[in-house]
Specification:
- This protein is of the alpha/beta class and about 350 residues long.
- It folds into two domains: about 180 residues, Medium-chain alcohol dehydrogenases, catalytic domain (Quinone Oxidoreductase, Chain A, domain 1, Alpha-Beta Complex), CATH 3.90.180; about 140 residues, Rossmann fold, CATH 3.40.50.720.
- Helix content is about 30%, strand content about 25%.
- Helix 3 packs across helix 10.
- It is found in: Cytoplasm.
């Protein structure tokens, strides 16, 4: 089968950073599905795993390492313990970072972290949703404890990085929950994007946040989601979170995060990492299956808009290198999707 992989960890401008290869078609066992991949999406985790660092610079991957943690496709075959799907079912999922990724024609994935593809969407549009939807859903409804059914309606959330992949879904989920959404964007095109997705207020994360929040008429916000530069935005987040409020981040920090202000406010801080359940095989892994099905139902009901902003074809190393380069440069809006094999 065709695949795009790496053998060495290289800068994206090196043509060998991602290469076209042939791999043996895998066979499902246990609770695995074998999925014929029709479309993939690209996320920051892809380039963060691929880029060279002190720990991997001299590593040679044998067999080659396949990246890719967003896919939509058709179930080709199932393992003997599978109960949720059958061959021919159309599915979408984000995958498991501890296994080979989805940038291949046929991919093995545990059924408990797979959802039924939204019937109203093609494979390319569906592939844009899983990783960002799981991340935003878990961040809001599990980490922050927001009531998905509107129990916190009218409360405020500040989303730092609203025009990215996770932010684009998060805005919409926050509106479904009835929150007042303040999000950041720094360019005219990104500001327009987040407004179209439902943001109530847009402020610029390249300028001091407090004066902009006060201009809206607020002193504090109830929740803060850091989807960009945790280190850089941490002081402002601690300043703006209400006493007994809650901050969540998905972006690793490089410096210690000062906690004295959090202590004085008795505020809570949480991490969200959507691979935790599959990485540790937690007893509640199947919750990702259930939440993806809920996301699909909302998409089919028109409550969530498509976030695929750039669809490329075919799936090959050249297009994946271009997508990685765009993400690394911070130029993307929404999600980059690649569909079809040649």
């Amino acid at each position: 089968m065709k695949a795009v992989a790496l053998t060495h960890y290289l800068p994206i401008d090196d043509p060998n950073s991602l290469i076209d290869i042939e791999l043996k078609k895998p066979h499902p066992i246990g609770r695995d599905l074998l999925v014929a991949v029709k479309a993939i999406a690209v996320n920051p985790v892809d380039y963060k795993v691929r880029e060279p660092n002190d720990g991997n610079r001299n590593t040679v991957e044998t067999p080659p390492k396949v990246l890719g943690w967003d896919a939509a496709g058709v179930v080709e075959a199932v393992g003997p313990e599978v109960t949720l799907f059958k061959p021919g079912d159309e599915v979408f999922y984000a995958g498991d970072i501890t296994r080979q990724g989805a940038n291949c024609e046929f991919h093995l994935i545990d059924e408990r972290i797979v959802g039924s593809k939204p019937a109203s969407q093609g494979f390319a549009q569906a592939a844009a949703f899983p990783l960002t939807s799981i991340t935003a859903y878990e961040a809001f409804f599990e980490r922050l404890g927001i009531d998905i059914d509107g129990g916190n309606a009218g409360e405020t959330i500040l989303i730092v990085g609203g025009a990215g992949g996770v932010g684009s879904i998060a805005i919409q989920l926050a509106k479904i929950a009835g929150l007042t959404v303040i999000t950041t964007a720094s360019r005219p095109e990104t500001s327009e994007w987040v407004k179209r997705l439902g943001a109530d207020h847009v402020i610029n994360h390249r300028q001091p946040l407090r004066p902009q929040i006060e201009k809206i008429g607020l002193k504090y916000v109830d929740y803060i989601a850091l989807f960009n530069d945790t280190d850089g935005h941490w002081p402002a987040a601690v300043d703006l979170i209400r006493p007994q409020g809650h901050i969540v981040t998905i972006v690793e920090n490089n410096e210690p995060l000062e906690q004295s202000g959090m202590k004085l406010k008795a505020a809570t801080f949480s991490w969200e990492f959507m691979f935790t359940r599959s990485m540790y095989q937690t007893p509640d892994m199947i919750e990702q299956h259930r939440l993806l099905n809920r996301i699909a139902a909302w998409i089919d009901a028109g409550r969530i808009q498509v976030t695929a902003s750039d669809v490329m074809s075919p799936i090959n190393a050249a297009n994946l290198r271009a997508a990685h380069a765009t993400l690394e440069a911070g130029r993307s809006i929404g999600k980059i999707v690649i569909e079809g094999w040649q």
